[in-house]
């Protein structure tokens, strides 16, 4: 089908199923596509098939009619494919939409067996024949831009759909009132959100550098606030509250994190879900990159700080490092603080 015929056919659809199952950041990067589908077409039903790892994003941030949650161990198994296909036949979606990250044979086969009249996907690993609408890869390198080729194919603009459908002003105000009562963060306070550590050491900044960065953030006139879901991050932050650090690690939801980022003066963090969420929140941000590829998840307008080492990036090809994670060891607090000071001065501290 030519582009005009594709758009014409899609405007007739009533029921859409999105198949996007990966981790928090991957699901978040597909949210603009779902926003577009919900806003552009007069749908009777919009569903999202997701596994446990990406479920919180769909539940808390997206606005869909039905979330189809599958246990990770059940979904990635060929023996369950037949039962999933039967279930999809009962739902009878007019359109199946997949992303370039869903390039495994199981996802492609599931889309084909759904018998949906329209199936949108990418021709990765020569699997274009599973879909009757094949999305061009385009020139974009970032994952969210690769996803956005679906929007462009259907006549929209990616940049128009970076928003969180479930955001609510009253809910946001209530959250900050709670923060003032429980954490002492007063209305209008200037603060910096920090997400520095990961349970995967190869993706985590150095724990021993954290205190120096916290003190440096305070010297810049900002209140440091730690976020993250890892139990070890929460314990680490709790032990350093005497430094003036507000510890919210493991204590707020994803939508509350979004509210927190919206009013933040600055975000500093590793390549992760909070870093990617800053693009939706419009937050001034500094990304810390070590083992991961900058181009995949770079946020436009944000600053990137990384150590120049010959062995990086290496993830996900490598999960361990024989060089004591040199890319993170050489990324010192003073480098980050120097960039933060320049950024704050540029935008008006």
Topology of this protein?
Blueprint: H1 3-10, E1 15-19, H2 24-29, H3 31-40, E2 45-51, H4 55-61, E3 66-70, H5 72-75, H6 81-91, E4 95-98, H7 105-113, E5 118-122, E6 133-135, H8 143-153, H9 169-183, E7 191-195, H10 210-219, E8 223-226, H11 231-238, E9 246-247, H12 254-262, E10 266-270, H13 273-281, E11 285-289, H14 294-297, E12 303-306, H15 326-329, H16 333-347
Parallel strand pairs: 1-2, 1-4, 2-3, 4-5, 5-6, 7-8, 7-10, 8-9, 10-11, 11-12
Spatial strand sequence of the major β-sheet: 3-2-1-4-5-6
Q: What is the number of beta strands?
A: 12
Proportion of residues in helical segments: 40-55%
Largest sheet: number of strands, sense, barrel closure: 6 strands, parallel
Task: Tell me the quaternary state.
Answer: single chain
Strand content: 15-25%
CATH class of the largest domain: Alpha Beta
Order of helices and strands: HEHHEHEHHEHEEHHEHEHEHEHEHEHH
Low-confidence stretches: none
Instruction: Kindly give the count of domains.
Output: 2
Supply the CATH superfamily name of the largest domain: Glycogen Phosphorylase B
Task: Please tell me what the overall shape is.
Answer: globular
């Amino acid at each position: 089908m030519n582009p005009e015929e594709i758009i014409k056919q899609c405007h007739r659809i009533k029921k859409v199923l999105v198949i996007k199952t990966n981790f928090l950041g991957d699901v978040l990067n597909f949210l603009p596509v779902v926003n577009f589908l919900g806003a552009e077409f007069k749908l009777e039903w919009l569903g999202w098939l997701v596994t446990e790892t990406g479920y919180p994003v769909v539940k808390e941030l997206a606005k869909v009619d039905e979330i189809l949650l599958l246990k990770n161990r059940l979904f990635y198994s060929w023996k369950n494919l037949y039962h999933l296909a039967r279930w999809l036949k009962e739902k009878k979606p007019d359109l199946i939409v997949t992303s370039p990250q869903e390039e495994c044979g199981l996802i492609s086969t599931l889309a084909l067996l759904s018998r949906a009249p329209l199936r949108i996907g990418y021709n990765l690993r020569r699997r274009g024949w599973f879909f009757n609408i094949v999305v061009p890869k385009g020139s974009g390198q970032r994952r969210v831009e690769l996803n956005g080729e679906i929007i462009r194919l259907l006549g929209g603009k990616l940049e128009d759909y970076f928003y969180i459908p479930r955001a609510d002003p009253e809910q946001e105000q209530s959250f900050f009132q709670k923060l003032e009562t429980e954490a002492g963060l007063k209305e209008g306070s200037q603060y910096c959100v920090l997400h520095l550590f990961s349970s995967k050491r190869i993706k985590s900044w150095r724990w021993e550098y954290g205190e120096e960065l916290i003190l440096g953030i305070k010297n810049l006139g900002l209140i440091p606030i730690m976020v993250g879901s890892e139990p070890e991050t929460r314990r680490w932050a709790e032990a350093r509250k005497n430094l003036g650090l507000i510890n919210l690690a493991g204590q707020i939801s994803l939508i509350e994190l979004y509210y927190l980022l919206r009013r933040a003066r600055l975000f500093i963090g590793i390549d992760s879900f909070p870093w990617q969420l800053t693009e939706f929140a419009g937050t001034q941000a500094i990304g810390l990159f070590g083992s991961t590829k900058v181009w995949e998840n770079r946020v436009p307008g944000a600053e990137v700080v990384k150590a120049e080492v010959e062995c990086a990036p290496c993830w996900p090809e490598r999960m361990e490092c024989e060089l004591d994670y040199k890319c993170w060891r050489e990324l010192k607090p003073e480098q980050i603080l120097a960039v933060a000071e320049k950024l704050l001065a540029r935008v008006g501290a």
